[in-house]
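Entry 0007
Protein: Electron transfer flavoprotein, alpha subunit-like protein
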Amino acid sequence: MSYVWTIAEQSKGKLKGVSFELLSRGRKLADQMDTQLCSVLMGSDVTDETLQELIQRGADNVYFVDDPRLENFIVETYSNVLSDLINEYEPHSILAAATSSGRSLMPYVAIQVKTGLTADCTELEIEEGTNHLLQTRPAIGGNIMATIKTPDHTPQMATVRPKSSRPLPIDETREGKIIRLALKDELVDDRVQMIGFRKDDEEFVNIEEAEVVVAGGKGMKKADNFKMLKELAKNFDGVVGATRDAVDRGWMAYPYQIGLSGKTISPRLYICAGVSGSIQHLAGIKTSEVIIAINTDPDANIFQLADFGIVGNLFEVLPKLNERLESYNEGGKKDELQPSY
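Output (C-alpha cells):
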C-alpha cells in the first residue's frame, strides 16, 4: 500500500504529545508521495474520542491494537505486534519518537523485518523519482550532517527526537478510519512482566515541557555563576538548562542538558548565555518560538538561529537584565511578561 506510518505512544489510555509531533513529520512525507498517513497505537482502554485526535492532527487511518496485555510497554511483545502488522500491511516507511520506548522498540523491529533504521533524525524528506526516505542526522560527533537511505529494504524506518517538530493544529473537519485490531495470542511474550514502577530518588524538573528555558554554556566559567541564570529563570517562572560542556564540567546535572546528547526542547522563550551554538545544541533548540542569545562573539553560531542577539559580556548583561526585571516585577507587571515575548 506504500503508506507512511507513525508510531503513537500512550500511558494509561492517554496519548503522549510525541504522537502528534510525529504526525506533522509524517503528513509532509505522505503528501510528497501522494499517499495516506497511518498512526499505529498499541495499548488498552483508549477511547474513540482520544483516537479521533490522531485523525484531527493529520492521520488518515488509525490502527489500534487493543488488549489489556498491551497496557504497559514490553518491548518483546510490542515488537512482535508491530512486526506482524508490517508483514500484513507492508508500509513504505515508519517513524517513531526517539523516546526510551521508541529507541527500544525500533531496533527490535528492524532486526525482525530485516530492514534498516536511522536514529535521532533531524530532517526527513522523500527523494524525488525514487520515493526513498532521506534521513538526515548529525554524524562524527556532530561535525557533519549525514543523509542516509535504505534503497534495497522496506519499510524505511527512522526515529525522531521529541520536541523537534510542532504538532499540526487540530482540524475537526478531517475524516479518517479508526481500525481496532485484536492481539494475537502467539505474539505475546510472557517472559517479561511489569511488576512496578519506581521514580528516581532525586526529582528533576521536566525541562522538555517548560514554557521558558534559560541556559548557560562554557562561557559561564564556573558553577557558581549559574546563580545569575537561576535568578533570570525565576523572573520568568522558567527553568535553567545547560549545554553539554557545562554538564561535563559538573555545573549542572545531566537531566538539564540540551542538545542531541541531551534533551530537545520547544519552549515559548529560550534565553542562552555563554553558548557558542554547536550543531548538536542548535538541533536541540531550533523549534523554540523565540530565542535570545548573549555572547561576546558577534560571529558565534548561536546568532544564526537567534531572534534577538546581545553582543556583550554576560557578566555585565545578566546582572543588569535581572535588575531591570526585578524592578519590573516589583511594580506588579510580572504577568505582562508571560503572554507574549
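Curator remark: Residues 297 and 338 are 29 Å apart (CA to CA). The chain has two domains: 4-187, 207-337.
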